[in-house]
Amino acid sequence: MKVFYCHNCQHQVFFNNTYCENCNALLGYQVAKKTIGTFEQINSLQWKSLNPKDNNHLYKPCYNYTHHQVCNWMIPFDDENIYCESCRLTHTIPDLSEPKNILYWQRLEQAKRRFLYLTQQLNIFPRPKKSDEDRYGLRFNFLMPMPDQPVMTGHQSGTITLNASEADVVHREKTRLDMQENYRTVLGHFRHESGHYYFDIMTHLYPEWLDEFRFYFGDERADYAQSLEEYYQKGSDEHWQDLYISRYAGAHPWEDWAETWAHYLHMMDTLDTAYHTGMNIEANHHIDPDMHFKESPIGSVDFEHTLTNWFALSYALNGLNRSMGLQDAYPFTLSNAVLDKLRFIHRTLMKVALKPETRVSNESDSNIM
């Protein structure tokens, strides 16, 4: 995540801010410019950009910004859409007559925007799903479970369904403990389920890609339902860390890909933040890794250097968390097999980013899916 500054007072602002805490100027994310903009409100639908490079261009806030306070993205004033690029991906929301659901929806949308920001940097920002038959678009359903209608978080044919209860901290922590998981976050759900979506995209656009995928992750044609049943009955192999990023990754090649994909996105976002904040680490012991940047980690040419930076940063983050009495920020072990899978994902994304002709949408230069 980049570092953003208010164009009115030059004070640092953050991705989810709706106003500058120093000067109270209105803020909003400008998708095309990939930045948090500062605005002067002319009326409810006309906000003038204070970015000197914008030449006083007019924008309007997303409908969910002004009516529900669950968004902070902006839309060019002459755009016919009333919803921003993020909110147009949301297909179903919880029943807002329940007050707690508004808070859950807000938390879900906040995590979704963070996920989408990184897809924009990676040049894989998805477009809305146009119909049930549209194989390239994406939609999100945020559903609250009912006594007779449980909700399973998952992906199917370009639709990602999230159990909105995951936005309840107590529910999520209890589930994490019950499932014996060492990591469970709302953002992590978005990143994991998106792995299934992008897997489908890759197999459609690059069918030859599957050969290399199977070399690292195994044959995805193995019966998925049977594999999951065996996993939940028998658990994972005691040496699972030699091959997988998590226990669940060993359930099936699809889950191995989704879990590893999610962790690649965790790495890229965290390293990108370190890069833009100017962080460096000079190790005090000769066997410990340093962290210094010679290029942006996103789309890095020297991915081995990026991995070295990640080791240094994750060690430091975990140590700092322990000093505060908190759980590790990154409670995972990267074996050689997992590192090879991460390298494969990086090569995959470089392949997509370097081939603009694979775009299936003309809606925006940032949309290649």
Automatic annotation (TrEMBL):
Signal peptide: none
Ranges where the Zinc-ribbon domain occurs: 3-97
Protein origin, superkingdom: Bacteria
Pfam families referenced in this protein's UniProt entry, alphabetically: Peptidase_Mx, Zn_ribbon_DZR_6
Protein name listed in UniProt: Zinc-ribbon domain-containing protein
Species per Swiss-Prot/TrEMBL record: Acinetobacter guerrae
